[in-house]
Design brief:
Helix content: 40-55%
Protein name: Sulfotransferase
EC number: 2.8.2.-
Low-confidence stretches: 122-129
Mean pLDDT: 80
Strand content: under 5%
Largest sheet: none
Shape: elongated
Keywords: Transferase
Enzyme class: transferase
Family: Belongs to the sulfotransferase 1 family.
């Protein structure tokens, strides 16, 4: 696409065409992206959080939902290390990490009385605190 938004130069290329762009999908011409279009796209991107975690490993921790579900103990340890409050050997031996995982589980949190009510504290909402 040219600066003025024209795609005429693309249409002049012989088919099939192979193009490379840094435009986000949402900015591509609609005639290329609509369901009836014959255009196909391969979208390659790098997760910006992953990039940040590589550049600033002491500031950014990348946790994927799937990893948290599969290895919750390991993820809790990583969070503690990021916050610079790693677990002591005594805490590890006393199963504190496991206890934290259990307390933070969906099952446990969804069974808390505060999460079973549709009532919101108006003072929290109105005061912004």
């Amino acid at each position: 696409m040219t600066d003025d938004g024209s795609t005429s130069f693309i249409e002049g290329l012989s088919s099939p065409r192979l193009l490379s762009t840094h435009l986000p999908y949402s900015l591509l011409p609609k005639r290329m992206t609509h369901d009836g279009s014959a255009c196909r796209f391969i979208y390659i991107c790098r997760n910006p959080i992953d990039k940040a975690s590589v550049e600033s490993p002491k500031k950014v921790l990348l946790l994927k939902y799937e990893d948290v579900k599969k290895k919750p103990l390991e993820c809790v340890r990583k969070v503690a290390e990021l916050l610079e409050i790693p677990f002591t050997p005594d805490e590890e031996n006393n199963k504190i990490v496991k206890e934290i995982v259990e307390l933070c589980s969906f099952e446990n949190l969804s069974n808390q009385d505060v999460n079973k009510s549709d009532v919101l504290l108006a003072t929290l909402i109105s005061s912004g605190k």
